[in-house]
Design goal:
The protein has 388 residues and is α/β, with parallel strands linked by helices. The protein contains 13 helices and 14 strands. Helix 1 (17-23) runs antiparallel to helix 9, helix 10 (265-286) packs antiparallel against helix 13 and helix 12 (349-365) runs antiparallel to helix 13 (374-386). It starts with 5 loop residues before the first strand and ends with a helix.
Length: 388
Amino acid sequence: MAGRNHLYIPGPTNVPNEILNAMHIPMEDHRSPVFPKLLTPLLNDLKKVFRTETGQAFVFPATGTAGWEIALTNCLNPGDKVLIYRFGQFSHLWAEMAKRLGFDVEIHQEVWGTGIPLDKLEARLKEDTQHTIKAVLATHNETATGVTSDIAGVRKAMDTANHPAFLFVDGVSSIASIDFRMEDWGIDAAISGSQKGFMLPAGGAILAFSQKALAAVETSTYPRCFLDLKDQITNNAAGYTPYTPNLPLLYGLRKAIDLLLEEGMENVYARHYRLAEGTRKAIAAWGLTLCAQPGFESNTVSAIVVPADKDARTVISTAFSKYNISLGAGLSELAGKVFRIGHVGDMNDVSMLGAIAGVEMAMLDSGIDIKPGSGVAAAIEYYRATAA
């Protein structure tokens, strides 16, 4: 098929040419005296993306999933109780990981399409007068359902309950794209991955830890090796890594941080909101709805519910085979019920209009009753009215 594949999934995202060029480098000695000139400023500037001054940033040659494990095993002890609200596939997977690692996992099931219930969280923490809950695991942006939870509200609930638990936040599909303020929100472990807001290939677990969390690393008795923060802390202090790093990814990350900071984080957040809102205008014009309930809509991914007598997998396969467009599938209990449009990373108005037009054609071909051009028209009007 002529032309490129158009990637409109919530990750991996499109990689800008500037980043691809930055990654195209000859291999070099990562033990040389010049390597710290790359790594040390990179880790310092990462803190500006996480929005923390007192925290410490780290990069592992791994994924966001490894980031979950890093937070759990470095700051907690075997058998510690953790609290998590499950409302999508990724909060489910984080809970399952914690169970497999031997933690005492208290899971509260919420309706898929909603997020963390702040009133319930506050009440549960107030009940825990013995402070047996050692960490709250919060999924900031549930990619499977297109739901964003209020992490500032989570911190407020924890403070109101006067509870000392750690706050670990999965920001894999929010950091570097949705408003995220590690310092202001009192986050102890912020977990991200390279392939979403950072606009890189997969393969990097990008994290930041508070001083409170770093102090716990010194006393944690959980067995660990490759994912041990102590090794990173020791080697990063001199500008090195404890094992062979992914050099192209680090050079790409350097360029990604430069692009983000040049745009300005507030502008990055505003751009993602605007792209998402135009997409939501299109969805409404089609007469369809989001999986996310009002107030929980994500600015990095929209999960769109198809009519009950249709299969979202048909839309996805048609979009790919006929129009060379990649859309996100419904996961787990949402399989066949939703398809997902990613509006994260290296995207602009025209990118989104291409996605919306392609989705319209695929839905029409799949027998979904929409008016041709309705979503495109609604998005055009919104983008024109809100253009800088």
